[in-house]
Amino acid sequence: MDADVIIVGAGLSGLVAAQQLTGQGRKVALVDQENAANLGGQAYWSFGGLFLVNSPEQRRLRVRDSFELAWSDWQASARFDRLEDEDVWAARWARAYVDFAAGEKRSWIDAHGIKLTPVVGWAERGGLRADGHGNSVPRFHVAWGTGTGVVGPFVRDAEQAAEAGLLTFHHRHRVDELVVQDGAVTGVRGSVLRDDPSPRGVASSREVTGSFELTAQAVIVTSGGIGADHDLVRRHWPRRLGTAPKHMITGVPAHVDGRMLAISATAGARIVNQDRMWHYTEGVRNWDPVWPGHAIRILPGPSSMWFDALGRRLPAPYLPGYDTLGTLQYLRTTPDIAGYDHSWFVLTQRILEKEFALSGSEQNPDITSGDRRAVLRNRIFGKGAPAPVDAFKRRGADFVVAATLEELVAKMNGLTDEPLLDAGELRRQIVARDLQIGNPYGKDAQVQGIHNSRRFLGDRLSRTAVPHRILDPQAGPLIGVKLHVLTRKSLGGIQTDLDSRVLGADGTPISGLYAAGEAAGFGGGGVHGYNALEGTFLGGCLFSGLQAGRAAARAVA
Fold this sequence. Notes:
Elements: E1 3-8, H1 12-23, E2 28-32, E3 49-51, H2 56-60, H3 67-78, H4 88-102, H5 104-111, E4 116-121, E5 140-143, H6 146-163, E6 167-171, E7 173-181, E8 184-193, E9 208-221, H7 230-236, E10 249-250, H8 259-266, E11 271-272, E12 277-285, E13 295-299, E14 305-307, H9 324-333, E15 342-348, H10 349-355, E16 357-358, H11 365-369, H12 372-380, H13 387-395, E17 399-402, H14 405-413, H15 423-434, H16 445-454, H17 457-462, E18 478-490, E19 493-494, E20 501-503, E21 509-515, H18 536-555
Parallel strand pairs: 1-2, 1-9, 2-6, 9-21, 10-18
Antiparallel strand pairs: 3-5, 4-5, 7-8, 8-9, 11-19, 12-13, 12-18, 13-16, 14-15, 15-18, 17-18, 20-21
Helix pairs in contact: 1-6, 1-18, 3-4, 14-15
Pfam family, one: FAD_binding_2
Protein name: FAD-binding dehydrogenase
Keywords: Flavoprotein, Oxidoreductase
């Protein structure tokens, strides 16, 4: 045996599994097609959001949360409807994960050196029904260091384990086959790729220079999802979301290619819920890209007005920050706009400065560096937009700025193949909204949401602008942002039991084979069901990697 356990994929879930294994003295071979600069995978690039329930941070902000409320929200969002088949393990994983988020998770991440910022975000506010999708309370905790702060402790553990002789890195080794003998997975075979010193995230060479084979008592697949392969995304695009966009932009590095799903299936693994996926409608093209089609998601506060490609305001609950997939479904299934691949934000400079954040570790240098003073200066007490946001406003291909609405609409029309927007119609809708701003109450659902948000101290301090008229010259200039569909996460994947053992077509475990992270739908083949509550992707990698590592360590004792 070359190792006790082979882990395929050096992303967050793979590193967590490795940490559990080497911490118990097991020898690990960590195999990844990218170079050492890419340790941590996609999670490194994230904003570092973690879903926690009844945390000290929530309690300090007077947020009342509980396992019961969170589990109610999760079930209403997931809408598991394949409980006799594809969701049978996913639903069990979901309850176990919410229990983890309400219990062990907070002390566990703290013990591993992951520290949290004091402000809790209110992401994915949902469909405006108590029994519908969404978070009833703020639960989005951001780690100091963003994604780098979540990944960093486990990278250090892996490097220390390598120095101690318990872990061997196999960079630039691409797995092409799981070796199966007498019904059990006993190793991997694949191609050695040409050395490529490219920086993290940059698309690397696929030139093959040799082959390899490794053997072990167990293999854990932690290779991620399909977000960088638009052909795969379109192949599995569900009818309920209408037609797939002709043009999408990419929120994950090129190595997130989904190859290991088909390879695992060839070895007998059951792949489930492939029609469940998570893509954002607030994507913008990166003016300084790292990987092909590199895009950034806007993390919007509640005040920007959202218009479809024809200039009609999106109805509630399709509001900024409320219902990600509901908005995507609306834009892709409404007949007269489904043929267009974009929508629009219209906002003011005042909203941009207070409410706009950009997803990604590199777009949040103050939090990523852990500079508390810079966070206070940039996000609480400072004037002007944070530097990365301002850079997109000045240099981003999807941003236009103007002093008047007529000038703004002309510039917005200049970003499309044909002029679809009418300044008079936009003015009518904006004026109607602005008339609702004069009171702390009113009939406009979005304005109600703004006032609701301002009642939460965290949003009032850093994420929600003082209510004002969009057409107030003192709040300007006006800003228009062209929004694209940005590919991101697979919600389905390899079906596993609660020990992360991969299940075959007959529902029984395949000996020696485990899966975790996005490749396993973050556990069970689809822990999120149809909808995610945000902050649950990194947490899903942590939890499923933890479960896989613990189970595999027991199995190879």
